[in-house]
Amino acid sequence: MKARESRKLAFAKLRAQPFLLAGVFILALFMLSAIILPFFLRDPLSTDVLIAFHPPSFSYLFGTDKFGRDIFSRCVSAARMDIAVGLSIAFSAMFFGVIIGLTAGVVGGRVDETIMRFTDLVLAFPGFVLALVLVAVIGDSVFKVGIAVTIGFIPYFVRLIRAEVLLQRELDYVDAAKLVGNGPVRLALFHILPNAIGSSVVQATLVAGWSINTVAGLAFLGVGIRPPTAEWGVMVAEGANDIATGFWWTSLAPGFLIVVASMAFHLIGDQLSEETI
Amino acid sequence: MWGFLVRRLTTAFLVIVGVAVVVFFVIRVLPGDGAALRAGPYASAERVAQIRKDYGLDKSLFSQFCVYIKDLSHGRLGTSMRTGKNVTGELFERLPASLELAFYSVLLASIIGLPLGALAAIKRGKVADQMVRFFAVIGSSMALFWLGILLIYLFFYILGWSPGPVGRMSVGQTLPPSTTGFITIDALIHGQFAVLGEAIKYLALPVVTLSFVLSAPIIKITRIAVLNTLNMEHIRTAKSIGVSSIDLIWRDVFRNAAIPIVTTIGIVFGYMLGGNVIVEFLFAWPGVGRYAYTAIQNSDIDAIQGFVLLVGIIYVLMNVVIDFVYMFIDPRVRLGSDQDSK
């Protein structure tokens, strides 16, 4: 009885928040189609020059590109990669950021000072430039792009968590937990962290959206993920030249999907941060 | 006030030194062989060794670092492998183009973002607020390069209203004498109005592309800052004694909300000066972003290194400028700093 009521309440709340609802819906749609659709579609890498530049039609929903590859299958396959990469970057940036920020806030002193100065240094570079140069130096692969983009986002979480920890540390429950004999690690992980992590989770949804844009932007510049991989940014780059010759559809769908996927995360993040104002 | 200035510049200098060390670390110490990259996949071992020797990459890391710091203290950022010219000169040659693009983009983004953000805050929870928030969400999720391509397709290929994506000016157009490096302002100073019109035509698409994306953070931060200010006691009091709301917004709210807004606009501007690789690439804009793109395509180590350093330094200096702007808009910062410098 009680469970049903609270479920009802949750639904009512969700309905009152169109942004959150829309974001979750789009994301679910993306994930479902990325999992199920590939079984029914053409191979995203198979080429057939005879059907090159086929405009969008019933059999080729988004048309075909200059190699005769089906753009719809490529977009679906890319959805898998882009969303997975975006989520992994957000998770790992939050994971490392939380550990580092928690250490800085709880240990304090020299350690804190060193960590924060280092954070400032990373923040002295715009994230996109940092990722661009890191990938240019360490080389191209999906994994390396992931690392490069993650590094730029870690400081956001370090700062957020540290600020929260400094606030929480002054509260009575922390003293109480200390008094009953919790060691510093236990105190940090099981008492302070659960109370300090909220804003970081909100931040992580926004970071997932930004990561999708960053990774696609790097791929567009030919850095990181390379052709013929089915990735939205790569596809927009490949199609960019076809526009001049009138084949407008080659970049249209992949670019649109970048925006929609990123938007799903931003809608969720925007609503969540609205709750905290 | 002067004490604050000196202290702020000292910390900025220290951060720049740190930035220089980080850049060295990233470019030279991380796995990846610059000389092999430069020589290309089919080069012989001797060729790679020769390149390594030419650029001093065969020496010990420590002596490389000493050379790097020595060059840096003389303002030398190394020699481009691609053009053989001094990287510092090449970067500064291209900086005005980036600066002009950044300036107009941030200006337009602020013209869009400030009123929309304030409107959303005043109408919080209403339809207007929802629409502004949705606009900001689209702006934050927009893929710059895709938007640019769409605009080029629409306004150049289909409608023919805009010139093609070929940079600041058509080839063969004589430029006004360079006084400020901004083509628009130079043209204005020297009375060449036809050139001014041309320059604006070429600026329009990249500026619209950028400002659409840049307006999102400005809207968000303005909205939050104004919301917070509207909750302050003295504003509520002013409202309750009947100060008209337009007056209130202009005189009191914006003044109180100015610090976060100025910070954001400053950071966005600093970001634009160096981080604008995508749009400069797309519109063939002859700025530092496009230079970085070419450098990366050619694995031109010194040029990449110079670019990152420049971006880092601009970013740090931008933060100093923001702090100074605080002193003018907020007497608390000015007075507070005077007190602790005594």
Fold topology:
The complex is a heterodimer of chains A (277) and B (342).
Chain A lengths: L1 H14 L2 H19 L34 H37 L1 H15 L3 H12 L3 H28 L2 H8 L4 H13 L1 H23 L11 H9 L8 H28 L1
Helix pairs in contact in A: 2-3, 2-11, 3-4, 3-6, 3-9, 3-11, 4-6, 5-6, 6-8, 6-9, 7-8, 9-10, 9-11, 10-11
Chain B lengths: L1 H28 L4 H6 L5 H10 L6 H13 L13 H36 L4 H15 L2 H15 L24 H7 L3 H38 L2 H8 L4 H31 L1 H6 L5 H10 L3 H29 L1 H11 L1
3D structure, described in words:
Chain A is mainly alpha-helical. Chain A has one domain (about 20-35, about 60-275): MetI-like (MetI-like fold). Helix content of chain A is about 75%, strand content about 0%. The relative contact order of chain A is 0.15. Chain B is mainly α and about 350 residues long. The longest helix of chain B is centred in the middle third of the chain and has 38 residues, at about 195-230. The termini of chain B are close together. The chains are: A mainly alpha (about 280), B mainly alpha (about 350). At the A-B interface, α4, α5, α9, α10 and α11 of A face α1, α6, α7, α11 and α12 of B.
